[in-house]
């Protein structure tokens, strides 16, 4: 599966490579199996294996075998790890961070990133996003939603703007121009319960 250089940060070889690095470097103490990461990042296992081989050869990640599983983790001892983590936080970390923070809010059924960040993530060229627009679908309290936005913003270093809507409004926006526009524009599902499409 071929992936072009990502519009969010075209210095990376591919979006898959950047997403893999973002996941590993933001959880430096965790080990992941390649098959687990392939499911999480939604990429074929063979593609992820090639990316992992390249990153291991460069010393950016560690790899070991446990039984039939190949486990990988960040190499925190590499001098490039800290600056690379900062760079990835500006561009690719919003997706997993937004998913982690907002999925923990009681009542959240789905989390959708829209706006300029979603457009760059989809490969549409343009200026770097100044903020991240997030739609929380479910019956959540405003206090919990804004607390999650504050936590995500602190982790990412970019302003996070949450908007709430009910599952019914998402499914049938009617004359709600914002929800209808999100449906028509590039958007990325960061998290969804099995009940949500």
UniProtKB/TrEMBL annotation:
Domain of life: Bacteria
Name of the protein described by the UniProt record: Winged helix-turn-helix domain-containing protein
